[in-house]
Amino acid sequence: MKKIGILFGKERSFPEAFVNRVNEKKVAGIIAEPVKIDKVMQGENCGYAVIIDRISQDIPFYRAFLKNAAICGTAVINNPFWWSADEKFFNNALATKINVPVPKTVILPSNKMPDDTSDQSFSNLTYPLDWEAIFNYIGFPAYMKPHAGGGWKSVYKVSNVDDFFTKHGETGQLVMMLQEEIVFEEYYRCYCIGGKYVRIMPYEPRNPHHLRYVADFKPTEERYNLMSDIVIRICKYLGYDFNTVELAVRNGVPYAIDFGNPAPDAEVTSVGQENFDWVVETAATYAIERAQQQEDGKDNLTWGEFVKKGISREKLF
Fold first, then answer.
1. What is the fold of 104-180?
2. Of 130, 134, 129, which Cα lies nearest the Cα of 178?
3. Which of 15, 168, 221, 269 has a CA between 20 and 30 Å from the CA of residue 39?
4. What does the alpha-carbon distance between residue 136 and residue 121 come to, in Å, rounded to a whole number?
5. What are 56-103's pLDDT values in tens digits?
């Protein structure tokens, strides 16, 4: 019997519905359950063919558990090694190489020095930075956000140079990105599961959180296909099995705004019933596919094209 597990935190509606849906399908030799951990021994199999990870970004113990599980052959969704390495500035840099439009973006050193460092630790950093070139490149208004993490935490809109320096002074040791504002006509949040199943959802980030999926944007078939292609291309290169990509459409061009969301919101109260039903059904279908393909003792993780081409020494782009 192959077990599919889901590892989660405070959320309830998606994990419970996912487990129920897998079991309702009654696929021979496959069952699903919430992951149960009572010990973690190095190099020992945890008993799960597949684990969907919804929480290890916040709990380092879980991330270590998942890496150990992966070494023993568990297909972890998403790959915990790549998730540990990934961050938003790299995502944007990658997008520029795979023909995905993204806002102009720069990365900034933290306002406060990291612990256990001094000014001598920054011998290679020019001070002051070339602020004039940076501001001319990005323009105002702009957005400032952490280069890693998510959930709209520590995100600032800055209107001018003085406003930037005031708000950057509040960011402490966070490494921030400064990003061009994309004034959009339409906005979409897109699930991508398995690098092939795509759900494009009209989304209005300017609404209160519980109303963000209440939007009436209606893409043409041509734009829908273009957005689907962008979403799949991004997830193919990053190697995420379960991700959301946010696209802001300006002058008919979809810009990828935020596209490293390996534990995306899937609560029924926020995404709405139709989107919830789709993500539950699709995640269950894909998890069963992965369980059927899984082989004990082998690497059953998904690796993105960026990593695979680097290992094989192919031309990356």
1. Dna Ligase; domain 1 (3.30.1490)
2. 134
3. 15
4. 29
5. 999 999 999 999 999 999 999 999 999 999 999 999 999 999 999 999
